[in-house]
Design goal:
Blueprint: H1 10-14, H2 18-23, H3 44-50, H4 55-58, H5 62-76, E1 81-82, H6 89-93, E2 98-101, E3 105-108, H7 130-143, E4 148-153, H8 155-164, H9 172-180, H10 182-206, E5 210-215, H11 223-229, H12 231-241, E6 248-252, H13 259-264, E7 269-271, H14 278-285, E8 290-292, H15 304-317, E9 324-325, H16 338-352
Parallel strand pairs: 1-4, 4-5, 5-6, 6-7, 7-8, 8-9
Antiparallel strand pairs: 2-3
């Protein structure tokens, strides 16, 4: 099945949406908009429903996941919803002892450093994440013609959390393993690719219309290391879900030097952070891919006129692209004014209406 094959289920309702048309590099009525972390701390309604509920627990309550995922669609009128979850959810689901600590991020009790540690990473089954299937079923019933984006963490970023034991600035333990024991590293990423692919399959089969692979930390690598030690695992994930025919998006932070390779890994859409203009990103990625991005999230703290000026620059840089989805160059910052996001969606829609 090709990426242009008309799917079934909820995806049929969304097939002709601006978002999916842009992913397929087809003409659109307006440039579609959605925001990474659009469902989250910037919204007072999110803070209200999450009050007193730990992050991982909130990801396992279908009714809560549904409500949080829908909040930015209702408020901002974005062109796509993104499933509310966290990249470590599949690791937690297979029994990895971890928690998401406020102000810190995911913390792993026993980091993976030796071959014997791989045994803790068993296969993920749909039963392990039955709450995901339930939540997506609820969401697709509510979203109507608005596409739902499923997502997962990429093998490198998951490996970094597992090896470091939590967030890391320099990824020294990760790189030490990658350089010092390349066979163990390759086996770790291969196993994580299988887990990630299984997690994405659950989301697609439940009704997700597209998927995004987040490689939050991969910008820490040089291109040669990415090609040799990371790209095969990312490509395995994309290959595993190719037959479903849903668009596949690949996004990383600080990946200006990796954009071409990230496109080679198999995505239909390459996400670009704010450091590289979209016209230059297109040159680096090459033909046959749509691009997503890439307003600096911090711009939203500037006055409205400045936001519009910076937004026009992004749209102008994207004017010659085969397909463009407007997004921020990373996630919505927690203290962002929600009204600024609502105005931004309206502005992009108005400026690009055809």
């Amino acid at each position: 099945m090709s990426a242009n094959t008309r799917p079934s289920g909820h995806a049929t309702q969304t097939y002709d949406s601006a978002f999916l048309k842009a992913c397929r590099r087809e003409p659109v009525p307006h440039t579609p908009v959605w925001f990474m972390r659009q469902a989250g701390r910037s919204l007072p309604e999110y803070l209200k429903v999450r009050e007193g509920i730990p992050m991982l627990e909130s990801c396992m309550r279908p009714e809560l996941v549904t409500e949080i995922t829908l909040q930015p669609v209702r408020r901002h009128r974005v062109d796509a919803a993104i499933y509310f979850s966290d990249i470590v959810v599949p690791l937690k689901a297979i029994g990895v002892d971890l928690d998401i600590k406020p102000g810190v991020g995911p913390v792993v009790a026993e980091p993976i450093r030796r071959r014997a540690d791989l045994e803790r990473l068993r296969d993920l089954t749909p039963d392990d994440v039955a709450y995901v299937t339930e939540a997506i079923g609820m969401l697709t019933g509510e979203l109507g013609g608005t596409p739902l984006i499923g997502f997962a963490g990429a093998p490198f970023t998951l490996a970094s959390y597992l090896v470091e034991g939590g967030p890391s600035r320099n990824h020294e333990n990760t790189k030490a393993l990658m350089y010092g024991d390349p066979e163990l590293w390759a086996d770790l990423l291969d196993r994580l690719a299988d887990i990630t692919a299984a997690f994405l399959k659950v989301q697609i089969e439940a009704g997700a219309s597209a998927v995004q692979l987040f490689d939050s930390w991969v910008g820490a690598l040089a291109p040669a290391d990415y090609r040799r030690a990371v790209m095969p695992a990312s490509a395995k994930v994309f290959d595993a879900v190719a037959s479903y025919g849903v668009p596949r998006i690949h996004f990383g932070v600080g990946t200006g030097e990796l954009l071409g390779l990230m496109g080679e890994a198999g995505a239909d859409v390459v996400g670009v952070d704010w450091r590289v203009p979209l016209d230059e990103a297109s040159r680096r990625v090459g033909p046959g891919k749509a691009l997503q991005g890439n307003l600096d999230p911090a711009v939203l703290f500037a006055p409205r006129e400045a936001v519009e000026t910076q937004t026009r620059q992004v749209l102008e840089a994207a004017s010659g692209l085969e397909g463009h989805i407007f997004n921020l160059g990373h996630g919505v910052l927690p203290t962002t004014d929600p009204d600024a996001l609502t105005r931004l969606v309206e502005y992009v829609h108005t400026e690009t209406a055809r």
